[in-house]
Amino acid sequence: MAPSKTSKAVAVASKDVAPAIDPEQTLKASKALLAHIKKAAASKTEESGKKNLLADPEDDLASSPVWLTLTTKRHIADTNRLKPGKIVLPHPLNTDEESTICLITADPQRAYKNIIASDDFPEALRKRITRVVDVGKLKAKWKQYEAQRKLYAEHDIFLADDRIINRLPKALGKTFYKSTTKRPIPVVLSPKPTRI
C-alpha cells in the first residue's frame, strides 16, 4: 500500500520543528552537575586519606574547568562541511606553553614566516610555532603515509589558513582526519583591507 500524502506532510513538518530548550531546566541541570563535581572531589580526597598541603582552603569550583561536549541527534547542516564553525569562548583551551604549533599556509610560505619572525608578532605565540609549511610543500614533502604520521606526531596543534582548509583532507589524508584531536583548526591569515 502506497503512503498517503498526509503522512508525508506530517513527517516533513516534524523534521523542521526543533524542540525548545527550557532555560530553567538547563540552569537546574548545571547546578546539579556542579554539585556532583564538588561532591566527587570531596569524596576523592576523603578516600585517599592524605591531605593536600598545597591546596587552597578557599578553593572553589570557579578555578576548575568544566568541559562541555555538544552532541546533536540530527546534523546541524544538510551538507558535509570540513570547515568547522567558530564558537567564541572567554577562556582559551590550548594554554599549555610547551605545546608546539604547525601553521599550514597558502603559497608562498616565506611571507608568513616573515610575519611570524617580525617584532609585531606576539612573543609567546612565536615560541610555540615551530613549523610553517605551505600547501604545495605539504603535498610534495608529506605525501607518504609514514611522513604524514611523523608530522602528526611532531606537533600538538595544527593551524591552517581558512582559505585552504577544504584542500587539506586530500593533502593530509586519514592520518589527520580519522580523529578530531589534531585536525587543523582554521585561522584567518589574509590581511585585512586598509581603510582610507
Automatic annotation (TrEMBL):
Q: Which Gene3D superfamilies match?
A: 3.40.50.790
Q: Which CDD domains match?
A: Ribosomal_L1
Pfam families (alphabetical): Ribosomal_L1
The name this protein carries in UniProt is Uncharacterized protein
